[in-house]
UniProtKB/TrEMBL annotation, chain A:
<dbReference type="GO" id="GO:0055085">
    <property type="term" value="P:transmembrane transport"/>
</dbReference>
<dbReference type="InterPro" id="IPR035906">
    <property type="entry name" value="MetI-like_sf"/>
</dbReference>
<dbReference type="InterPro" id="IPR000515">
    <property type="entry name" value="MetI-like"/>
</dbReference>
<feature type="domain" description="ABC transmembrane type-1">
    <location>
        <begin position="94"/>
        <end position="291"/>
    </location>
</feature>
<keyword id="KW-0472">Membrane</keyword>
<feature type="transmembrane region" description="Helical">
    <location>
        <begin position="130"/>
        <end position="152"/>
    </location>
</feature>
<keyword id="KW-0812">Transmembrane</keyword>
<feature type="transmembrane region" description="Helical">
    <location>
        <begin position="12"/>
        <end position="30"/>
    </location>
</feature>
<keyword id="KW-0813">Transport</keyword>
Automatic annotation (TrEMBL), chain B:
<keyword id="KW-1133">Transmembrane helix</keyword>
<feature type="transmembrane region" description="Helical">
    <location>
        <begin position="154"/>
        <end position="171"/>
    </location>
</feature>
<protein>
    <submittedName>
        <fullName>Oligopeptide transport system permease protein</fullName>
    </submittedName>
</protein>
<dbReference type="InterPro" id="IPR000515">
    <property type="entry name" value="MetI-like"/>
</dbReference>
<keyword id="KW-0813">Transport</keyword>
<feature type="transmembrane region" description="Helical">
    <location>
        <begin position="114"/>
        <end position="142"/>
    </location>
</feature>
<feature type="transmembrane region" description="Helical">
    <location>
        <begin position="46"/>
        <end position="68"/>
    </location>
</feature>
<dbReference type="Pfam" id="PF12911">
    <property type="entry name" value="OppC_N"/>
</dbReference>
<dbReference type="GO" id="GO:0005886">
    <property type="term" value="C:plasma membrane"/>
</dbReference>
């Protein structure tokens, strides 16, 4: 177990280092400097800006400064949002994204498992086919299309919700819907297929033969094994919800990290792009790390001391 | 019947019953059901899966229009026409026009060309690199596997869409940089599938038999290992097409897609976003086709998986 955790931790640090290095050199590979587009900037101001950001030093020196700052969790200043550091922007905006993301994760897991379970219990009946149809569609509909349609229909037309903003609990409904449909569809399919397999296993028949009630069998015996694959999906789900929030937040005008990310991409605010990318990657890697360990702890069949495939 | 016959004729057997009959090929064929090879069996299962066949049909129709659609309309996809802004679909402009008066029919099918090309080329690039790397990991094992696997794990931890966004911010956005950006981490999934297959296959007896008959490593990989892991490879390939198409649309939605006047579905959706409440058809056609295409690829991929491995049926 210790070796496994160690190996995964080393991997995370390596990945972050690779990503940090790659982002640094990618940003440096862009022709010109970030102040080129700025019009009417006097030469002296430009000089000062360049000196301030350290762009006059040789590349290796800039890289070392960058790494040193990174270790101190200093991601530099935003180049477009004046007087704001990247860390400030992230810490201020991330709380909205996190609230929304957590709600979306909880909704996805609960609804996904429930729907998948219903489908498995009514295997090959009409309700199962309907659920699977919706699940297939849910995987294919792009989240930004879904978000726009939901916004138009429920907020603009029916006026059930606010069009934009995140001020009350009702404002969570549409963004959560847009974020959760894909994970719900995925979890439902996953739950259904494993539950169908588990429900036909010998030990379930044994439990039935002992005279246990069907609810007890379902909860105590079947769900335990049937939910294992769902645990392994938590990592990818976090990735989906994070990347989804990038567009969903800008569509619903939520001042979360995703919106700043889209803005930074369209403004070419390089330090902000770099900072948010690293931050996203760190969250994702951490959630994958937790998932891997949780999975190994839950399922004793996985030999964690050996290299996993 | 027979037993009573034998009993009544006890001690009095007709030697004629033991005459040798000629065996005709006709008898053999009619004696049982037709035998099918593994490949035919797979095609048969796919063929009888009506959802998969409908999806395949839809995809073929979309490909047909992607190729011939733009030339069907008398309007091209790039000319602005300020006298024909935001027109609803009509006999002249079949899908209407956009805010610059460009013909949406031509743009939609031109966009289909780009979206499909991105999806297919990115999937093929993933296939090529993934099979190569996965094959090396699985076949050589040991140190090679250790190093390559570590490398891919480190790379895989970096979120796919973030890499794509970063690279397109830097390299600028055209179709080829988008494909390149997708391939940087896109091949990893394929390589793991191939690695798993090959590790499982290479210890089987028939590979040992081939080896003991003097087959070289290259021959074994090409003739035995890859053909036998073809099923999961094809399924992964089919399912990676829609995710590439989605990634392209996502990028275009962020304003990082192909540049105007070129059209892709993502670019058209992004253009239509601001005004589609008044001109819904501008969003409807590209968004609808994007969804239908991804849906069809997903259903067809599921069908393929069921056909290759009926036990896996989901």
């Amino acid at each position: 177990m210790f070796r496994y955790v160690l190996r995964k931790s080393v991997n995370i640090v390596l990945s972050l280092f690779v990503l940090a290095t790659a982002t640094f050199f990618l940003m440096k590979a862009i022709p010109g400097d970030p102040f080129m587009q700025e019009k009417n900037v006097p030469a002296a101001v430009r000089e000062n800006l360049i000196r301030y950001y350290g762009f006059d030093k040789p590349l290796w020196h800039q890289y070392l400064i960058y790494l040193k700052n990174l270790l101190q969790l200093d991601l530099g200043m935003s180049m477009r949002q004046q007087y704001q550091s990247v860390v400030d922007i992230i810490s201020r905006s991330f709380k909205y994204s996190m609230q929304l993301g957590l709600v979306a994760i909880v909704v996805s897991v609960v609804v996904g498992i429930a729907v998948g379970l219903i489908a498995a219990l009514y295997n090959r009946k009409l309700i199962d086919r309907l659920i699977m149809l919706f699940a297939t569609i849910g995987i294919a509909v792009p989240n930004f299309v879904l978000a726009t349609l939901a916004q138009y229909y429920f907020a603009n037309k029916l006026r059930w919700f606010h069009v934009a903003g995140l001020h009350g609990p009702m404002d969570y409904v549409l963004p959560t819907l847009a974020l959760s449909v894909l994970p719900i569809a995925f979890i439902a399919r996953l739950t259904r297929s494993t539950m169908i397999e588990v429900l036909s296993a010998d030990y379930i028949r044994t439990a039935k033969a002992k005279g246990l009630g069907s609810l007890t069998i379902l909860i105590r015996h079947a769900l335990r094994n049937g939910l294992l694959p769902v645990v392994s999906y938590v990592g990818p789900m976090t990735a989906n919800i994070i990347t989804g929030s990038v567009v969903v937040e800008s569509i619903f005008g939520i001042a979360g990290l995703g919106k700043f990310f889209t803005d930074s991409v369209s403004n070419r605010d390089y330090t902000l792009i770099m900072g948010i990318t690293l931050f996203y990657a760190a969250i994702l890697m951490f959630s994958r790390f937790i998932t891997d360990i949780a999975y190994a702890l839950i399922d004793p069949r996985i030999k964690i001391s050996k290299k996993g495939g | 019947m027979q037993t009573t016959n034998v009993e009544t004729n006890k001690g009095n057997i007709d030697p004629g019953k033991f005459a040798k009959l000629e065996k005709t090929p006709k008898d053999v064929v009619e004696s049982g059901s037709k035998s099918r090879s593994a490949g035919q069996e797979i095609l048969y299962r796919l063929y009888t899966n009506s959802w998969a066949m409908v999806s395949l049909g839809i995809l073929l129709v979309i490909v047909f229009f992607a190729i011939f659609g733009p030339s069907m309309s008398e309007h091209n996809f790039y000319s602005n026409n300020l006298d024909a802004q935001n027109l609803a679909p009509s006999g002249d402009y079949w899908f209407g026009t956009d805010s610059l008066g460009r013909d949406i029919w031509s743009r939609t099918w031109k966009g289909a060309q780009i979206s499909l090309t991105v999806g297919l080329v990115a999937a093929l690039a993933d296939l090529l690199i993934g099979v190569l790397m996965g094959g090396m990991m699985g076949y050589f094992g040991g140190k090679v596997d250790e190093i390559l696997n570590r490398f891919s794990e480190v790379l895989y931890a970096i979120p796919y869409l973030l890499v794509v966004i970063l690279v397109s911010v830097v390299l600028g956005s055209n179709m080829w940089t988008i494909i390149l950006a997708m391939t940087i981490t896109g091949w990893i999934n394929m390589s793991w599938i191939v690695r798993g297959q090959i590790m499982q296959l290479k210890n089987q007896e028939y590979v040992l038999a081939a080896r003991s008959m003097g087959a070289g490593g290259f021959h074994i990989v090409l003739r035995h290992l890859i053909p036998n892991s073809l099923g999961p490879i094809i399924v992964t390939l089919t399912l990676s097409v829609p995710s590439a198409i989605f990634a392209e649309a996502f990028l275009s939605f962020l304003g990082l897609g192909v540049q105007s006047p070129a059209a892709s579905w993502g670019v058209m959706i992004n253009d239509a976003m601001k005004t589609w409440k008044y001109f819904p058809w501008q969003l409807l056609f590209p968004a609808g086709l994007l969804t239908i295409t991804m849906l069809a690829f997903n259903i067809f991929g599921d069908g393929l998986r069921d056909a290759f491995d009926p036990k896996m049926k989901v």
